[in-house]
Amino acid sequence: MPHAPEACSQFALPPARTPEKNSSPKAPTSSSTPSPKSQIGSDGRYRATRHLRRSAAKHVLARDPRFATLGPTLPAKSHNQEILSGVLERIIFFNEENNYTIAELRPGDGREKTVITGQLGGVQCGETLRIQGTWTKHPTHGPQFKIASFKSELPASIYGIRKYLGSGLVKGVSKGLAERIVQRFGDDTLRIISEDSAKLQEVSGIGKQRARSIKEAWDEQVVQRELFIFGQTYGLSPALCLRMYKQFGPEATNILRNEPYRAAREVQGIGFKTADKIAINTGIPNDSPQRIDAGVEFVLQDLQDEGHTAFPLEELNTLASETLQADIEIIRAGVDRLLESKALRATEAINGHTYLQLPYNFFAEEKIALSVKRLQETPSGLPPIKRDIAADWAEEKAGFEFGDSQKDAIKGALANKVFILTGGPGTGKTTILRAVVSILKAKKAKILLAAPTGRAAQRLAESTGAYAQTIHRLLKFDPSEGGFVMNENKPLSADVVIVDEASMLDARLAAALLQAIPSQAHLVLVGDVDQLPSVGAGNILKDLIASRKIRYVTLDVVFRQKKFSSIVHYAHAINKGQVSLPAALEDVRQLDPKKDFQFLSATDQTDAANKVAQVFQTFIRGELRLDPVSDAQTLAPMHRGLAGVGNLNQTLQASLNKNTEAMPFGTLKFKVGDKVIQTRNNYDKNIFNGDIGIVTGIDGSNGLIDVDFDGIQATFDKSELIDLQLAYAVSIHKSQGSEYPVVVIPLLKAHFMMLQRNLIYTAVTRGKKKIIIVGEPAAYAMAVRNSDAKSRCTLLQELLR
Q1: Pairwise CA distance, residues 202 & 470, whole Å
Q2: pTM: predicted TM-score of the whole model, two decimal places
Q3: CATH 3.40.50.300 is the classification of domain 363-555
Q4: If 0-12 CB within 10 Å is exposed, 13-18 middle and 19+ buried, where does residue 173 land?
Q5: Domain with CATH 3.40.50.300 in the chain
Q6: pLDDT tens track for 654-704
Q7: Which residues form the Helix-hairpin-helix DNA-binding motif class domain (predicted)?
Q8: Share of the chain above pLDDT 90, in %
């Protein structure tokens, strides 16, 4: 029977969220526009407007720089509204939820810099803006110009042209080169570049080839700018538009305008909601087959993002009907079309329900089940091993007495073709792994060790004394083929494959791994089932255990209680639902370097963010004499809010990285020395989701950033930077598989949507030496008491039975 069908029947898509109250500084709150909720429009369409303006402006692009307008046409001037034009100098604050911005504008009439506030998405420093709005007076910060609407223009002033060319918007033109070009051609500069680029050779340092390159870069940015402006209306970031341009080239704007559902399918990050908004404006009917089919797939993908690999047919029909505001019979017809074209797969379960799956989830779970059965049915390729004697030998070699469950685990790993070892921190999983590896080495067996992330693989290697690598590198992805080199047709060369942090395995990665294991080999999966499940769809470790088709041992006796008393003690208390905390401290100066688990009180998100920064500067760098970048990590429950990942990253970057040279990218600024994280697999660069690195170089004129990922060097251009984020703070989900000497965890009642036992348990078990929780004791209690983690609908259990 599929996993937790009862939970599936209660599942509903989460409502759209509005920004938190503290998501912008106090100064501009009076003029802040809150994010509108998702709603159904009068035309019956599903409206997902969190990132979108309610009324799309008409856009006009002037391809000749002599025509200034590059943005939406401003409406007629309203009563009491004024026009303000100038160069965007600095973005002080930007809220990604609703595009609310606080920025500085240098007016073209010679006035001093002006603070502007309002929705200002999709623009970058150096651009010339023509803004319609009204003057307001902030009680603390004085006069501000509140934006009603705006358009982006090509600059007309010498200053504006110099700023625009040197901003990095035109690839290959540095600030110095921009200065020389403008000095030579003055206010005729942009016409020269566009229409008579050969004259650029009159500027020192520009030859024939470079002049041609500047002209090509100019033409490219004009086309890109058209895409940016069109995309801006629908909430698409410049980085996402660059990704579209890389996919479709000069036709990107036309495809987005005329084939929005195609754009959503082929470009990650656009999604059905944005495509549907565009379709409304282009007249695609509410019940058109292309919309219904795309919408049903969107609903399944949204469920997949929640971790489900399958969903009951009738419940999906109902959910899709409500989401798309379409008659259920129209939805059923769409499902039938998708099944006929094999865009969806259906499985009849033993409980009488039909489950729908996206094809790759269908094949992934099927391949996992078939691979497990293949391994179990094939005789072992290991030489004969007397398991009792081997366990005693390993115990003697370790120098201390093993517990009964530990000996059972050693013998189980040697005896069973597929074996699972689970247990919490301090229960001896590492001891077992080390013992099994030593026995296998003594028998000259070929062992392969792997883990889902680089940090987990590094820890596995350190704990066993054997080479370990990530699963992606073990399987050797081939970008030209779009798949792994090692597979069922070219299996791994191994007698035993050991995989640590197996709770992180999603269905697709697990399928690829199991297919590549040779039939005579053993597979040992090691993990903690009480941690967060995989980020990707599936519930592999729990499903394998629950199927009762695979031998497993759970270690539940704590052996390292004395050595790591506090962290292990509190981790196990959390797992049992026991709320216990050390005394809450009021001041960072009260933190004790000798204690390994401490709680620092914070009254709200602002207080928590400030105290997190103080912990890094005063305690970690000052008292502990540790490197706050490499030796410590902030793990936050949420991305949004002042105590969320986004704001904490900017706060910690300002505090810990004093380098002045930076390359702006959207709301971020990358500096040499920044800690960054890759958020999507990039097989071409051999860099994977969750890999953390350090920025080692910046080439602002060409929009390039160099990053060192633990010895792997990678260069990113601007179209790839959308997949790179600061990593002074990361989400708890992203921390899976990693350990850090010091872990700092902001935890407040404002995070209530994420306060779950397995979340705080995962965070606490990431700390090797010290845990510092910054927040409210009540929030900690809420998390520990909340064991209602969302169930996932999967079919793997049924396929294994």
Answers
A1: 53
A2: 0.74
A3: yes
A4: buried
A5: 363-555, 561-637+732-801
A6: 999 999 888 888 778 899 999 999 998 888 888 888 899 999 999 877 889
A7: 198-217, 262-281
A8: 57
